[in-house]
Amino acid sequence: MERIVYLDGQFINESEAKVSIFDRGFLFGDAVYEVTAVLDGKLVENEGHMVRLQRSCNELQISLPVTTEEITTIQKSLIEKNNLNEGGIYLQVSRGSAGDRDFGYPSGIKPTLVLFTQARSLLDTPKAVKGMKVITIEDIRWKRRDIKTVGLLAPCMAKQAAIDAKVDDAWLVEDGYITEGSSNNAYIVTQEGVLVTRPLSNDILHGITRKALLELAEKEKITIEERLFTVAEAYKASEAFVSSATTFVWPVVEIDGRTIGAGAPGQVANKLRKIYIELAKATAE
Ligand code: PMP
């Protein structure tokens, strides 16, 4: 069955949704995006995603063609039109098309807005139960990882390297320190029980899930250190895990073939996943 998608003011069948070959999202990766999780047919932490979308647009001088309130209305219509109960909504805004290829930002063009749904199990996932295996790989991305652009070739290469190595994902490394996962934020728990994750900067995406998780961890009286951590420190951790909008928390049980902790999802990861899901369900709208 075809999905109903949204393109520039219209709800249409996915096979009818067409964008110009001159669209700058296509030519230059000149576009930003957001993914919001959907649970029980409702949007999870969408306000945070809208704030980050606006920030990404501001950094690139892309003006949203509709307000973030209108985007939320579109998201809700798409959930309804596609009968989406669990999964995600992808949203992309590109600078638009000037009918040719020139590097500088053209003036007076209308941004292209695309949204579509993806049905997928978020709560009942094998990786939450068994945990993930990851490899570490050099972080070759650009220096503005805080802007959520569709320029995702480096993460695609990292993910493919993980697939080729027969593991689930890759953690990215810069100057010996882990930045984040290919499409998630990365955490370790030390043998002393301290939760460690890289501090916010232009080096990583400012995860919406990360923010909520750190608040929850603080309430649980877990000691948090927002600091850089090395690959060697990760190997010695008692636990490791990742977070993102559609995975929530997924434990990491192996890094570069080395078993982490007991080789099974750890207590902190399990606890944070459980209470994050409770919060997500209670606040979804
Ligand atoms: N880092 C990167 C590189 C990501 O792609 C993502 C997911 N988009 C995240 C972190 C997690 O961010 P969020 O919790 O907002 O999904």
By secondary-structure content and strand pairing, the structural class works out as alpha+beta
Poorly predicted tracts of residues: none
Biggest sheet character? 9 strands, mixed
User: Which word captures the global form?
Assistant: globular
Examine the secondary-structure arrangement and name the CATH architecture of the largest domain. Answer: Alpha-Beta Barrel
**Within the CATH hierarchy, at the fold level, what is the topology of the largest domain?**
D-amino Acid Aminotransferase, Chain A, domain 2
Q: Give the count of helical stretches.
A: 8
What's the name of the CATH homologous superfamily of the largest domain?
D-amino Acid Aminotransferase, subunit A, domain 2
Topology:
Elements: E1 4-7, E2 10-13, H1 24-28, E3 31-39, E4 42-43, H2 46-60, H3 68-81, E5 87-94, E6 112-119, H4 126-130, E7 132-138, H5 153-164, E8 169-174, E9 177-181, E10 185-189, E11 195-197, H6 208-219, E12 224-226, H7 231-235, E13 239-244, E14 248-255, E15 258-259, H8 267-283
Parallel strand pairs: 7-8, 7-14, 11-12
Antiparallel strand pairs: 1-2, 1-6, 3-4, 3-5, 5-6, 8-9, 10-11, 10-13, 13-14, 14-15
The structure holds 4'-deoxy-4'-aminopyridoxal-5'-phosphate (PMP).
4'-deoxy-4'-aminopyridoxal-5'-phosphate is lined by residues 35, 180, 183-185, 205, 207-210, 243-245.
